[in-house]
């Protein structure tokens, strides 16, 4: 008995709809500073999960929060400028 699933996987493995479009890749590239800042913030939180944060940990968390907020504000500002809002 042949399984359709194996045939379907072979047929759709290289379908065009499975790859990101150029627009999606551009959107990811545009949001990359926010993504990286969020990763840094999550890393800072993870390091303090099993202990009371030291002064160094607290500074790292504050810096990571500031970077994440700055990245989001910059992305919002660029998006608004691209849409012509506030111009």
Describe the structure.
This protein has 87 residues and is mainly α. It contains three helices and no strands. The N and C termini lie far apart (65 Å). The mean pLDDT is 86.
Topology readout:
Elements: H1 4-12, H2 22-47, H3 55-83
Helix pairs in contact: 2-3
Which characteristics define this entry?
about 90 residues; flat
Compact description:
It is built from 3 helices and no strands.
Mean pLDDT, nearest integer?
A: 86
- Runs with pLDDT <50, length 5+? none
Q: What composes the largest sheet?
A: none
Radius of gyration, CA atoms, in whole angstroms: 21 Å
Task: Indicate the overall shape.
Answer: flat
What is the helical fraction, as a range of percent?
over 70%
The arrangement of helices and strands along the chain is HHH
- Terminal-residue CA separation: 65 Å
- Which structural class is indicated by helix and strand composition? mainly alpha
Total beta-strand segments: 0
Work out the helix count. Answer: 3
Percent of sequence in beta strands: under 5%
